Amino acid sequence: KFQIARTILTALNERGESSLRERREVLKRVVEFDNFTSCWENDRLIAKGLLSEIQQLINVKDSFTRINQERKKERQSNIAQAESKRKKKVEQKERLVSIKDRFAKLFTIINAQERGKALEAVLNDLFNAHGILIREAFTLNGDCNEGIVEQIDGVIELDGNVYLVEMKWWKEPLGVGEISQHLVRVYNRGHS
């Protein structure tokens, strides 16, 4: 059996890389051999020893192959993660540029109400782009068919705290009167 294996492996080795699969199959069958009863009594221990050496050599080679395969797999995974992060950064940058462009276009809108509604949408997208949880504008209706009593421009959650968002677009700088009126509304909100 030794001569047969040697003859076959020599022939396969001479064929080069094209016979790699066949060489592995022969070695697999040799290594799986575990019945030495057909060996001559004098050759039995030698055969077991040689087989053990071949098994160890294959285990070492296979270990290196597995290590290299794992390294390659890990490298490919790292490359894929890096590419994914890069894509997300590019998409985020494009998203922010789009929001900035939309914000710049707001300055061309003359109608204040239309501009204010457009500003709400731009700011909602900006909050969303930065991962700030947001509930978009909504209205509160009166109990007795009063219609819309109040409009809330938005609600955001930041660091576990909830904030009401009020947006105004003023032509002139804000004064104490405008700010204090808004603050009085907010602070009295909990008492009504």
Task: Give the structure's gist in a few sentences.
This protein has 192 residues and is α+β, with helices and mostly antiparallel strands.
Topology:
Layout (H helix, E strand, L loop, with lengths): L1 H13 L5 H13 L8 H66 L5 H18 L3 E9 L6 E11 L2 E5 L10 H13 L4
Antiparallel strand pairs: 1-2, 2-3
Helix pairs in contact: 1-2, 3-4
Q: What do you see in this structure?
A:
The chain is α+β, with helices and mostly antiparallel strands and 192 residues long. The chain is built from 5 helices and 3 strands. A 3-stranded antiparallel sheet has the order 1-2-3. Strand 1 and strand 2 (148-158) form a beta hairpin. Helix 1 (2-14) runs antiparallel to helix 2 (20-32) and helix 3 (41-106) runs antiparallel to helix 4 (112-129). The radius of gyration is 38 Å and the shape is rod-shaped. The relative contact order is 0.05. The mean pLDDT is 81.
